[in-house]
Amino acid sequence: MVNVPQPILQRFDVVRSVAARSGGFITTSELRGLGVPTATTTRWCRAGLLTRWHRGVYKTGSDSFGFESAVHLAHKLMTDDQAVGGRSALVLWDLPGASRGRVQVVGPVGRTSTSPHIKTTQYRDLRAADITRLNGLPVTTALRSVIDAPRFCKTGTIGAQLTDGVARGLFSYDEAAHRVAELSCPGKAGLAKLRAVLTTRIESEDVSLNSYERAAAQLFHNAGLPKPEAQYQVHCDGRTYYVDFAWPEQRLFVECDSMLAHSTPEQLQSDLRRQNDLLGLGWGLLRFTYWDIIDRPDGVVAALERRLYG
Predict the structure, then answer these.
(1) End residue of a domain, out of 175, 204, 233
(2) Cβ contacts of 295 within 8 Å, gap of 6 or more
(3) Cβ-contact 199, 259 below 8 angstroms
(4) Long-range contacts from 181-184, C-beta under 8 angstroms, 24+ separation
């Protein structure tokens, strides 16, 4: 660094304090807002006070450049509808499967970057609710970050992400199931792997029924169907069953099926006896999975309408 007059250094201290809020980075527009003309910026670069890292973006000092610096650089280059995402966001959320390589910036189709430190990923399904702020930086939510990362992660890592995220209150299994269902589409890389892990977590944590009941009740209401009775009590030959949903007037039961429901011969035998007892009462019985309700609501409603209105 060349010798710089004290008055210039004092003026530069103001710039340095503003840049410190963003990892030492400052933009041309911010410099102008501080009353620093282009000619002065050029002189400061020659004096070694500023280093140009990208068009319109400078860094104070000569500190080493690592992942954290790249994140702050990415922040300066982002548009308002972009955020740090994917495995880079997992670093910021301190979740398993993170990568400290090139910073992944996600945003709508048409948003790209030419910086060698940034990898831009374009999503058509990214919505405003998927982006939040973490320590002042725009970043995809913990849940969206986990959803976008599975194609690069092993099954065990995905499970650890879900466990950690739920334990820390970053999201719930129910929220994860709903968002995965919303984003499910052919060709969505890694989502099937995440969904498989999530399904076992939902069922093993014994929250699938609650999730099913809430989602199903909302579906029935939105479709304008008669309101069913939940956890309907049925007595048959000295045995008592609780059916997930029932329309007593139309004599129709609806049951939620789980992957774990038939995992052993004994469970299968018990389930078949239950089904035969219910059908023996002369009621109709329809069975849907949680994913039927979430992914194929039109088919569920059509089946119910045929039985309810015949």
Answers:
(1) 204
(2) 181, 184
(3) yes
(4) 181/291, 181/294, 181/295, 182/125, 183/125, 183/147, 184/295
E strand or H helix that includes residue 56 = none
Q: Give residues with Cβ within 8 angstroms of 55, minimum separation 6.
A: none
If phi > 0 it is left, if psi is from -120 to 50 it is alpha, else beta; for residue 212 that is alpha
Residue 68 lies in a domain: no
pLDDT, greater one: 130 or 265: 130
The answer to whether residue 74 is domain-embedded is no
Dihedrals phi, psi of 286, to nearest 5 degrees: -120, 140
Residue 190 has pLDDT above 80, yes or no: no
Q: How many helices (H) and strands (E) does the chain have?
A: 13, 12
What the block records as the tokens of 303 is 């089946």
| Number of separate domains in the chain | 3
Q: Are residues 53 and 38 in the same domain?
A: yes
Give the pair of three-digit tokens for residue 133: 């702020």
185 inside domain:
yes
pLDDT at 189: 62
**Do the domain assignments include residue 228?**
yes
- The whole-number average pLDDT for the span 140-166 is 92
- Lowest-confidence pick of 81-85, 109-113, 249-253: 109-113
CATH label of the domain that carries residue 17: 1.10.10
Task: Compute the C-alpha angle 54/134/99, nearest 5°.
Answer: 65
Q: Domain residues for 192?
A: 79-204
Is the domain of 89 the same as that of 51? no
- pLDDT tens column, 203-260: 554 444 456 677 888 899 899 999 998 878 888 888 888 888 999 999 999 987 654 4
| CA gap 198, 129 in Å, rounded | 21
pTM of the model: 0.64
Shared domain check, 235 and 132: no
